[in-house]
């Protein structure tokens, strides 16, 4: 595999509304996208942009709030009631090729490849096989590494 | 404050050597910098580059391994023996101005402003005041957002 962009860091929060106020009023984020429900993954999602080098797009902050009582991030928030760093997401050019490579290395993949928050195929790798980090692998959007919703 | 680049994510590891092998052999990182001791902060440090958009520099991964028995990350590794996401670091144009703004907002700052791993002034903010995330604020290097060591 060839390491691609660090597309986003996933940040769990008990309240996207409160987190938006934090990134806007405390951190001074200039662009905060509209939150939306990602029902298939049991989370409400909101992307916060950070600038890249020379006016390019940088790594985003993906705020995730539990959607329903079965949300997979309820356990994380029970342990970390304020929220915190939940996962990291790297881009790859070809999701199927990346999946095959991780499988060949014996890395545990959590569930099937599915559509992620940016509408491109993703999968997650088990943190115990990834140096303690829940790692998302995402195919780079065809139109490039950024988006407008 | 105006949110700057996500300069790096800080990743604690019990072994920088093992982490280098992971980012090189599993993740396919093309550029891994030479590790060095940051004695003032009690850590050994190694930066791993990720690509930015259009060939620019992206957010780095800062691997940190304890240096000595008093290292401030020993507690984190006792709780997370495999390592994991330790902190995030955002750039600002003026470190003194940023410090003043966080102080005025009542955010707890951990210790004095000091030189960080990139040789520019930094300070850390208490995770309990920052949505559960240990947050480093770093002045953008004068020569730009990248480096060569």
How would you describe this structure to a colleague?
Two copies of one chain form a homodimer. With 149 residues, chain A is α+β, with helices and mostly antiparallel strands. Chain A has one domain (6-139): 2,3-Dihydroxybiphenyl 1,2-Dioxygenase, domain 1 (Roll), CATH 3.10.180.10. Helices cover 18% and strands 33% of the residues of chain A. Chain A has helices at residues 16-26, 74-79, 95-104; strands spanning 6-12, 36-38, 43-48, 60-66, 84-92, 109-115, 121-125, 135-139. In chain A, strands 2-3-4-1-5-8-7-6 form an eight-stranded mixed beta sheet. In chain A, strand 2 and strand 3 (43-48) form a beta hairpin. The two termini of chain A are 29 Å apart. At the A-B interface, strand 1, helix 1 and strand 5 of A face strand 1, helix 1 and strand 5 of B.
**What is the count of β-strands of chain A?**
8
CATH homologous superfamily grouping of chain A:
2,3-Dihydroxybiphenyl 1,2-Dioxygenase, domain 1
The shape of chain A is globular
Number of helices of chain A: 3
Q: Biggest interface and which pair forms it?
A: A-B, 48 and 48 residues
For the largest beta-sheet of chain A, the strand count, sense and barrel status come to: 8 strands, mixed
Q: Distance between the terminal alpha carbons of chain A, to the nearest Å?
A: 29 Å
- Write down the CATH topology of chain A: 2,3-Dihydroxybiphenyl 1,2-Dioxygenase, domain 1
Could you say which structural class the secondary elements and strand pairing of chain A correspond to?
Answer: alpha+beta
**Average pLDDT rating of chain A:** 94
Query: What kind of assembly state do the chains in view correspond to?
Result: homodimer
Q: Using the coordinates above, name the CATH class of chain A.
A: Alpha Beta
CATH architecture of chain A: Roll
Percent range for helical residues of chain A?
Answer: 10-25%
Tell me what portion of residues of chain A adopts beta-strand conformation. Answer: 25-35%
State Rg of chain A: 15 Å
Low-confidence stretches of chain A: none
């Amino acid at each position: 595999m060839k390491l691609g962009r660090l597309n986003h860091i996933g940040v769990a929060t008990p309240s996207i509304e409160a987190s938006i106020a934090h990134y806007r009023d405390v951190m001074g984020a200039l662009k905060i996208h509209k939150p939306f429900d990602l029902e298939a993954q049991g989370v409400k999602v909101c992307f916060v942009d950070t600038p890249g080098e020379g006016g390019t797009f940088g790594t985003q902050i993906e705020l995730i709030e539990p959607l329903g009582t079965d949300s997979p991030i309820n356990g994380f928030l029970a342990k970390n009631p304020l929220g915190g760093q939940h996962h990291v997401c790297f881009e790859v050019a070809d999701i199927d090729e990346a999946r095959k490579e991780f499988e060949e290395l014996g890395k545990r993949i959590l569930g099937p490849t599915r559509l992620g928050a940016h509408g491109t195929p993703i999968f997650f790798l088990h943190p115990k096989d990834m140096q303690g980090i829940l790692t998302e692998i995402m195919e780079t959007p065809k139109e490039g590494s950024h988006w407008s919703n």
